[in-house]
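Continuing the batch. This is chain 6 of the set; chains 1 through 5 are on the previous pages. Same settings as before, nothing changed between runs. Recording input and output for traceability.
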Amino acid sequence: MATTLKRLIASYVFDWFVILAIAAVGAGFWRVTPYHRPFTLVDPSIAFPYVEHETFSIGVLAVLALIFPGVTIFLVSMIFVPGPSGLTWAPFGPTLRRKLWELHTGWIGLALTLALSFMFTQGMRNLFGKPRPDLLSRCDPDYENQADYALGGFPQVLNGLYLVSSTICRQTDKTILNEGFASFPSGHASYGLAGLFYLALYLASKLSVTVPYLLPFSYTSSSSSTHAFTTKNTTRPDSSSPTLPPPSTQHLQIPLRYQSAAPPVYLLVPPLIPICLAIYICATRYTDFRHHGFDIIFGALMGIFLSWFGFRMYHLPIRRGDGASWGPRSEGKAFGTLLGSGGYRDFERKRDDNHRGDLEWGAGTSHEMNRLGSSGEFVNGTAAPSSSVRQGMV
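Output for chain 6:
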């Protein structure tokens, strides 16, 4: 058991090394001179003034998109995990393991999101080399000899309107000049949304903030499962009843309007804070004349997609996950699995072996897990419904 558990831990350590390697690739792209797309000196979209001091510097962005979400995830994991749906009977050791596992999944999802955002953003900037709105101010072009730098166009027809290369620039600071060709996509938008929207998803998951939804529907001849209001011979879910139908069929007798409810509005505030902050960061890139509108929108959409991807890699869906993350991989599939082997969890392993360890809960807990069960766990070898489903049933 100790050997297999160490192998599983080593696989997650290797995951962190891979994420660091992705970030290192992005850092390599950042140091490469980008492609300088030709431009025209009479283009008003690149004639905005160069603002030396940005509203959000790179350092401030790193604090807001990396440090702030990381600290928040740490506090939530240490204070609120495992929560009321967890195994409240567990001693301090297993509870601490659960806290550390939730912290690990929260951090590794955030790290993967930001690393991918950094790599994609820097790589695309070098490929496209799109001029920023303040390029001409950065460039300080040689207007008197602009014909010597012409690359194309129709000067005879359009009164000297033609494209020029970046060699026309008299800017001596190569960093300022190269940054002038890094408009697409917006790094602040992609990186800021990647970290802050990930935090919003994380908080929404832990606080169960989601749009009300219906329980999984099964076809039945009973009309009670398709009516919005209580029908005849149907019991309200919150009424006292001496007998209840089996859990597998009980939801069929709940009127639609009682199968879910909206969360308290004040719980929307925590997830909205990082979202509003990310929107403000994006807005400043436009007012600081650092990016065109499309560059900001594309970067924001990329950051949102990557944050969703990083979150779902390690966390259950917000609607049905009960605020929990995915469990660890099975020891035998720590570093990979074969085609057709059914994913990275081995559901056929014996859970009644009290001597086997568990990366999330530790050794000696499987008997209690079989007896009581928890959200997303097993009860006597049968998958138990999550607390959100159980609440909809009773």
